[in-house]
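tool_log.txt
---
The assistant was asked to compare two proteins side by side. It first ran the structure predictor on the initial sequence, then on the second. Raw inputs and outputs are pasted verbatim so the downstream comparison step can read them without reformatting.
(1)
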Amino acid sequence: MAHVHEGGDDATGMYFAIVVARFNDFITKPMLAACLAILEERGAASTDIDVYWVPGAFEIPVVAKRAAHGGHYDAIICLGAVIQGETDHYRLVADETARGIASIALEYGIPCIFEVLATPTAELAVARAGGESGNKGEDAAYAAIETARVLTAVRET
């Protein structure tokens, strides 16, 4: 029979870094609040969570990389919102931010949860930051806990 490993949602004893973009903070602040609420509800101590504010989404990867390099965190959660304007600039920012965050996870073997919304309108972003589509900050917290716990199981087998 196969050995099945699942991460679960117990954050007790875990350390988290949350890197949050200040640009479009009317979106990122509710995402952060929801993320923090889930982490603490699931057992993480508030003193074991560090929040790092950066100017925009494009700056998230460099701070996430520094956090990963330190080896202190079980997971890094990246929160941002990039909303389409009149040019394709938003797509460049979103794509490079995603690429940077993914490369950090692979290089350091630590979950780097990508929850940088890239939406065509502010209304769609609001819907995903506590509106009718839920709150992606909550999803990010659950993904961080579960992935970190699965990585622990992989190390222990």
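(2)
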Amino acid sequence: MTMDFPEPYTVVMASDVIRDGMGLELYLRGPAGYPDGDILMEVFYSDVDGTFQTQKFRSVPANIEEWFQAEARRRLPPMPS
């Protein structure tokens, strides 16, 4: 699932069956809003132990990193039954 977010970024949310959880990935936006090139950051939520892990692959502005972390915590935890 790809969604548009602050210029020039795109966020992709995906299930990861190998690591058993969900991830949110931050990319630079390319033509037509699709990710362009390498991933900038990832936040992964583990279904195994309920933890969040953040990995930075490139430098991003502090305000975008803060926004992305908050967005990941809003979207990745399991929804209550």
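---
observation on (2): The CA atoms of residues 13 and 39 lie 12 Å apart. The mean pLDDT is 86.
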